[in-house]
Amino acid sequence: MDSVTDPVLQRQRILIQGIVQGVGFRPFIYGQALHYGLVGFVFNDSQGVTIEVEGSLLALASFQRALREELPPLARIDSIATESVQPCHETTFVIAHSQASNQRYALISPDTATCDDCLRELFDPADRRYGYPFINCTNCGPRFTIVQDVPYDRDKTTMRTFPMCPTCLVEYEDSLNRRFHAQPNACPLCGPQVSFYDGGTTISTTTTNDLIMRIVQQLAAGAILAIKGLGGYHLACDALNTEAVQQLRQRKHREAKPFALMVPDLNTARQLCVVSAAEATLLQSHRRPIVLLRQLPNCPVASGVSPAYNTLGIMLPYTPLHHLLLRAFTTALAPGSLAVLVMTSGNLSDEPIAYQDDDARTRLAPIVDGMLTSNRDIYMRCDDSVMHISAGNVQFLRRSRGYAPEPIPLSFDLPLPLLACGGHLKNTFCLGKGRRAFVSHHIGDLENLETLTSFKEGIKHFQNLFDIDPQAIVYDLHPEYLATKYALDSAIPQKIGIQHHHAHIASVLAEHGLQEPVIGVAADGTGYGTDGAVWGCEIMTANLLGFERLAYLTYIPLIGGEQAIRQPWRMAAAYLAHVYGSAFLEVAIPFTQQLDRAKWHILAQMMSSHLNSPPTSSLGRLFDAVAALLGLPQGLAQSNVLYEGQAAVELEMQATYATDAMQEETELYPFLMDRIEGQMTTVLNVAPLIRAIVNDIQQGRTVPKIAYRFHCTIAELLAQACHEIRKQTGLSSVALSGGVFQNRLLLEQLITRLEAFSFQVYTNRRVPPNDGGLSLGQLAIAAAQLRAI
Amino acid sequence: LSHGSGGKSTHNLIEGVFAPAFSNPLLDAMDDAATFRVDGTDDIDHRLAFTTDTYVVSPLFFPGGDIGKLAVHGTINDLAMAGATPLYLSVGFILEEGFPIVDLRRIVASMAQAAKEAGVAIVTGDTKVVQHGKADGVFINTAGIGLVRASWLMGQAQLEPGDKVLLSGPVGDHGIAIMFAREALDIESDVQSDTAPLHTLVASLIEAAGEGIHCLKDPTRGGVATSLNEMALGSEVSVALDEQSIPVHPEVRGACEILGLDPLTIANEGKLLAIVAPGVADTTLQAMHNHPLGRDAAIIGTIQAEPPGMVFLRTDIGGLRVLDMLVGDPLPRIC
Ligand SMILES: [Fe+3]
Ligand SMILES: [Mg+2]
Ligand SMILES: [Zn+2]
Ligand SMILES: [Zn+2]
Fold first, then answer.
1. Start and end of every YrdC-like domain (chain A) (predicted)?
2. Which of A94, A122, A297, A725 is deepest in the core (most CB within 10 A)?
């Protein structure tokens, strides 16, 4: 078409922001312009992409539609601004040079799983990248983990040490090529290589294929290997090999917490677990999180992989190396045997995952039989994301690789650039500017020095990457959180403290752009309350500006502070003492019969003299107490739990073993809602519930049945409390957050009940309901409060 | 709420209120005692050490000691940590109306004996009686003067990367003994307060290691965690501790397990931390072992350059756990 002679010739300037660089966006625009016969140009600048297109109105409309509907897989448009400008009458469409500007708003994309095109080439013997473990293109490959600085260019990534060969360079410079400006572009001639370290020597002389065959044979023979991935090292072994799995537990000092698995394909996953359509989509998405799936009854995976759980955390391969390994592992096994690898984070116990080669050698080499490593450096550590489908929706348990650092869009402009420091465990921080909240990758437990260091360095890195200079710093009210201490010691003068559970609820409000007040249900482990007590089951009216606490669980002492969290039996005893007084010792159930009386005697004295026994309204602790009453965690009667939340998790697992017959019997345990005289506040009194559970134990009811009834009762209690608050306030939207809502049974039961009451229910979809979501909530509240000033 | 409990909030109170108001070079060093020359010169020899402390312990009598003994030992120890031989003490009493005279006699006798044993003289004093309810039995203030034996600079600004951290004995005895006595907990225990005058131990360390000693500190309120954090901040270095090497009596460890407390945050009254040059670490340790108050001494860690201002523990499986000073009561952080 000859556009110059078109009677309705128009020209548009289109500014696009979002994830539009390094994702094949300009070639896409070029292709579309050609397709619709448009002339003009496209270029990248630090704010995004600028396009000018000229042609007929109809062609321009089609082009705009394609922009919205036919994006390259990794691209995401946050905003499009179109204006009409004077036609220039060029004859071609060109990709112009990138323009630098002093703002650098372009977004760094998350690391992305190998795309189908690259996968085809990887396994095509005729392709020059056949079997090359670092194949990638603009649609896939490493991003966030290799970026050292902005703008996103090869020399600002850890790929800068690999000059491209002429063939790669041609691809890189060809605007119609799938590898046009793919910064990590590489091939076997010019790119990174894998090598194997067996403790004494580094072997890199054999071909990659030989190396991989050798490795999978070792794995098939029961070896434990460290494997360098995208955001860090994994520890791998054959998940069907009971002995290897046990070995791995010992060497890693991880006694009970489940290991994640990697399987070659969806079919294999289906032989281990029930996989719904939604779960299959999540497993196969280019973000490739670990997805928690329900195990099949005859699941062949070693029981030590996920003890006491009826779920498995499964992911599909997301790097070319993973694809090569898993495919080769299948061939190394006996025919008909399933290829399932444990792929757990490369660390000891609760340390952060190793990602630097030197560090990995020091820390991991002593506990593995060999290390599959490479000479491509990881700049940013990034753990695997963990998700599940709960009440029909995706829920994050950990938001990290594949998602970070993609910003979460806000429904309003931040008045100032802000930094929110998040919680103490499962930490993420959040930097915000404009309408974007950059929630960091999973940082972890700040009590660990290395994690604390990566928290501080991560903040600097994000500030630089996204050009954010925070003018106010936001923190949790808990004076002992290291994130709080960091905020209070910071040079940023304006500091804003946010209550823990208000932040949890605000994370939901921020995700959904909710401005109006809602009823917030924060069901949590522990958080610092404004009365100095340890909160954790708070039903409030809240918007981003503030909250009012209208109902909470009866205060029970945490005898020995954190020790009462590590030892759920303390909570069970404290609840019994609360309900029965000191006579509880005469209550004939196994728990009291096995209780160490001398120890309890001291605890009782601590409780009465308020010695390190802060009051708590935590729902997580009630779950702990009920678990301990039922003898959970199994085999740990009066010792420490082996990981955070173990007792509550085992209680949920037991509840899922309830038979259909048990589930159909809808009788709930009793509870009371005590109105505090002269106040709007209701205390949720579970003393009758505890008595009824004790009675059920005495009647010999089974653990699954009691656990199931307990879950339903708590759901009913929370739903009733919301119902009462609606009577007082007229509010009919409910936001649910807090770590306890990782419990799928509870969440499903509660949502069902709330919807039966005609509530509109909102939950976290973009950040975890646990403390990993706090930083987003903190940021949103601080922004709202600053705007209101 | 917890401004007196000795951790970070006391630290903040000092940094926020007293230090700016009273600021001068001697105070600003923030050591346990000020050292200076009477003639006003900066010469390092023949300095005096001067310190004061107030004692408000409850209960007044506890296994291993009483408030009077504590008041004498505490001030002697603050002088000793400056490398000084304690010479003279002053005593001030604030008595609550109706305080039993027998108790007062007992306390005074205990102080006299403690001073005599330590070879220091109580040379001046003062007494005030306040209305019932305006004080809790008896409060005692002591001040002390000593002659500095160290002819080099010591203090929490003198730490250097590579230095070794020595601890003179097991931690937590005093705080746990007090807690048991105060709360009348029915724990079968013979944990006794470790209250003791440390100046002869210090004298033998100075003899043995000389200017290799960079800093001495008695980890009283807030325990080893607080003392080391103050040093890390004062010298802008980090302190790396080896968790397994820190001596703790099994009874104290057991009590901490039940109470949910960290022995490293619990008060001591007869222990010292010595930060010494690596070359004299073994000599210093040997000198501690040769003294009755240092028999169970151990090298517990190392001073590092990075990350400044931090104290951390190498745990038994090799992890590095941050050891901060407590702001207030140890509320749980696990969510
Ligand atoms: Fe929380
Ligand atoms: Mg003192
Ligand atoms: Zn690709
Ligand atoms: Zn190449």
1. 209-402
2. A725
Report, as an integer, the average pLDDT of A502-526.
97
Half-sphere exposure of A56 (CA within 13 A, CB side): 12
Task: Kindly report, residue by residue over A578-589, the tens digit of the pLDDT.
Answer: 999 989 999 999
Mean pLDDT of A172-177: 87
CA angle, residues A489, A491, A494, in degrees to nearest 5: 95
Q: State the ipTM, two decimals.
A: 0.91
**Cα–Cα separations (whole angstroms), residue A126 to A120, A187, B265:** 11, 14, 67
**pLDDT tens digit string along A709-765?**
999 999 999 999 999 999 999 999 999 999 999 999 999 999 999 999 999 999 999
Cα(A436)–Cα(A465) distance, rounded to whole angstroms?
A: 14
Of the listed ligands, the closest to the CA of A113 is: 3
Show the DSSP H helices in chain B as ranges: 8-13, 19-22, 25-28, 67-81, 101-118, 173-183, 199-209, 223-235, 250-259, 281-289
Tell me the CA–centroid distance for residue B249 and ligand 2, in Å.
24
Q: Is A647 on the interface with B (CB under 8 A)?
A: no
Domains of chain A: 3-95 (3.30.70.100), 194-374 (3.90.870.10), 407-498 (3.30.420.360), 552-763 (3.30.420.40)
Q: With 60 as the cut, is the pLDDT of residue B255 above it?
A: yes
Name the CATH architecture for the domain at B164-322.
Alpha-Beta Complex (3.90)
Are the beta carbons of A605 and B258 separated by less than 8 Å?
no
Dihedral sign of CA atoms A770, A772, A778, A781 in order: negative
Q: Which residue is associated with the tokens 């039961």?
A: A749
Taking an 8 Å cut-off on Cβ atoms, the answer to whether A446 and B322 are in contact is yes
Give me the residues near ligand 2 (ion), CB cutoff below 5 Å: B 53, 78
Chain B residue with the nearest C-alpha to that of A456: B307
Peptide bond before residue A125 is cis, with ω within 30 degrees of 0: no
Beta-bridge mates of residue A734: A519, A761
Compute, in angstroms, the gap from residue A18 CA to the centroid of ligand 3. Answer: 20
Query: For the segment A734-743, what is each residue's pLDDT rounded down to a tens digit?
Result: 999 999 999 9
Interface of A with B in 223-242 (CB under 8 A): none
What is the percent of chain A where pLDDT is above 90? Answer: 83
Tell which CATH architecture fits domain B31-148: 2-Layer Sandwich (3.30)
Q: Please tell me the number of Cα atoms within 13 Å of A21 on its side-chain side.
A: 24
List the catalytic residues of A.
26, 44
Residue A183, pLDDT > 80, answer yes
3-state secondary structure of A779: helix
Query: Residue A461: which of A147, A703, A677, A84 has the closest Cα?
Result: A147
pLDDT given at position A102: 43
How far apart are alpha carbons A250 and A232 in whole angstroms? 21
Residues of chain B contacting A364 with CB distance shorter than 8 Å:
none
- Taking the CA atoms of residue B35, residue B39, residue B41 and residue B42 in that order, the dihedral angle to the nearest 10 degrees is -20
- B107's enclosing H/E stretch is helix B101-118
Q: Which residues of A touch B307 (CB under 8 A)?
A: 449, 453
Chain A CB contacts of B324 under 8 Å are 480, 482, 485
Q: How many angstroms separate the alpha carbon of residue A256 from the centre of ligand 1?
A: 23
The two three-digit tokens of residue A668, written as one number: 């709930």
- B175: CA distance to ligand 2 center in Å? 15
Mean pLDDT of B53-80: 96
Q: Is the pLDDT of residue A21 over 80?
A: no
Using DSSP's 3-state secondary structure scheme, residue A681 falls into: coil
Residues 293-322 of B with CB under 8 A from A: 307, 310, 312, 317-322
Task: Classify residue B18 by its DSSP letter.
Answer: I
With cut-offs at 50, 70 and 90, classify the pLDDT of residue B3. very low
pLDDT tens string A234-289: 999 999 999 999 999 999 999 899 999 999 999 999 999 999 999 999 999 999 99
